[in-house]
Amino acid sequence: MMKKKIIFGLMLWIGHFAMSQECPRLITPSDGASGVPVDVTITWPPVPGIIGYLVSLGTTPGGGEILNRRSAGLTNSYTPEVGLPENTTIYVTISLFLFDQPLRICPSESFTTADVTTPPVCTFLNSPLNNETNVDVTSPLQWSYASLATNYRISAGTSPGATDILDDFTTGNVLSYNPPGDLPQDSPIYVRITPFNENGDASGCIEESFSTGNAVIDCNAFFDPDTGTIVPRRPKSDVPTTLGLCGGQNTTDYTTRDVADGYRWFKINEDGSESLISSTATVNLTELGPHRYEAYNIITEGSFSYECPTSINFEVVPSEIAVIESLNIERLADGKRIEVIVSGLGAYEYALDQRKGPYQNSNVFTQVSEGLHTVYVRDKFGCGIAERVVERELSADDFPRFFTPNGDGINDFWQFIAPEDNQEIKVLFVQIFDRYGTLLTQILPNTRGWDGTFNGQPLPASSYWFKAKDNLNNEVKGYFALKR
Question: Which distant-in-sequence residues (6+ apart) come within 8 Å of 35 by Cβ?
Fold first, then answer.
């Protein structure tokens, strides 16, 4: 009785766990809602037992024109950073990232945004902050989203109301702007940001200000008069803009090959702040979503040392090593055509014979020579390389040219032996003919072979023909000599 209760309880737990990972339905806005504010926060019920959510927003079912697979971590809500387009049907696709399982893409749900009929509200600087001092002259301007805004204009100058730095510059629907040149050194900077939409400008937006410090070092490349060369001060970086959380794992290590004096890796949080997750060349990635990498060199001038950094923003996405399902091989006049068929969650690139590449995006190789080859499939997001040997086709040169059935125990039988460079070639059968086309015998693999007789009688020394078929359904014809 107790055993039955335990089994019953286990089945209930398994059923509850499976149900708990079903696709969620939108809470706000609900599916089919209309008149939804363009600055709405999209929410759905939490799904236990998952690693994270991916959110896509588009104007078609399953589309990602507005937002393509943006990670929400384990937060069951998402607020579009720059709002949504007005009077538009928005399709929301939530995907579940499960441990050691493929990504589960849920059915799309939709709502329609309201028709905006009023101008937006004002915004304010969040970097640099109003009244901040000693601001780096290379700092970009960043501000908060203004509700209902679809664009922004910036004016900036070195005195109140002045526009000697920026004169009513239109940025687009973004939340930051990096001036084309450095800001003036050791100077007050006055900035006015005016959000607007098709209904007009935000009214009453105030002017904010901050002051810059002295630019004590130029991190750009400089001319070394001793060597006569241009010397870079910032590290060069090959860290990709996308890295993978591989194969359903909840952790992936990535090591940069950049040469630098120091390294920093950051996770970008939902509120835009950053959390340091590594200060070495290797980072342990545990979360999907936006990250930032920084490599820096330390430059010393006089008694002061400064960092010259190179920064790369990258996204961590679910990925996995490829599975090579099959190779489609076609023999053409100018060589073989090899098509590599793969499956997997990642984005892949392909190389032939060289594990280190060069790699190509196409999965087809042409003008491939005869002989043994290997194809390599590399996940672009760093999850690894799959490889497979391309089977060399059977050739007449793979068969013995002669044999001597004279009973001395040496070369008394004629039989196919798989070549050393491709032991995977399998011959199904070999038929042997005399020069008049008479079928003399058929020999099978794993036998001693032909002993040079027909109906129990030895045949004379002469040329004989063979026809063989292999496991790839190739047919090969050739001849050999019987010597006595």
Answer: 112, 113, 114
Q: What share of the chain has pLDDT > 90, as a percent?
A: 66
Farthest CA pair distance, the chain: 115
List the structure tokens of 303.
Answer: 């008694």
Q: What's the Cα-to-Cα distance from 105 to each of 14, 24, 62, 71, 98, rounded to whole Å?
A: 22, 11, 9, 13, 11
Residue 422 confidence (pLDDT): 60
3-class SS at 362? coil
Indicate if 396-482 has the same CATH topology as 323-390: yes
pLDDT, tens only, 353-399: 999 999 999 999 999 987 779 999 999 988 899 999 887 677 888 89
Residues in contact with 13: Cβ distance below 8 Å, sequence separation at least 6, in sequence order: none
In terms of pTM, does the model score above 0.85?
no
Compute the half-sphere exposure of residue 261: CA atoms within 13 Å on the CB side of its CA. Answer: 12
36: Cα separation from own chain's centroid:
34
Q: What does the alpha-carbon distance between residue 18 and residue 13 come to, in Å, rounded to a whole number?
A: 9
The residue type at 365:
F
Q: Is the pLDDT of residue 332 over 80?
A: yes
What distances in angstroms separate CA 403 from CA 407, 411, 416, 431, 447, one per listed residue? 11, 6, 12, 16, 16
Give the other-Cβ count within 10 Å of 330's Cβ: 9
Domain at 222-319, CATH class: mainly beta
For residue 421, what pLDDT is reported? Answer: 58
Q: At CA 459, angle to CA 456 and CA 463, rounded to 5?
A: 140
d(CA 86, CA 199): 12
Q: What is the mean pLDDT of residues 88-101?
A: 93
The full set of domain ranges for the chain reads: 20-112, 125-211, 222-319, 323-390, 396-482
Measure the CA–CA gap between 170 and 193, rounded to whole angstroms: 10
Report the CATH number of the 20-112 domain. Answer: 2.60.40.10
Residues 374 and 352 sit within 8 Å (Cβ to Cβ): yes
Tell me: the pLDDT tens digits for 454-474? 999 999 999 999 999 987 778
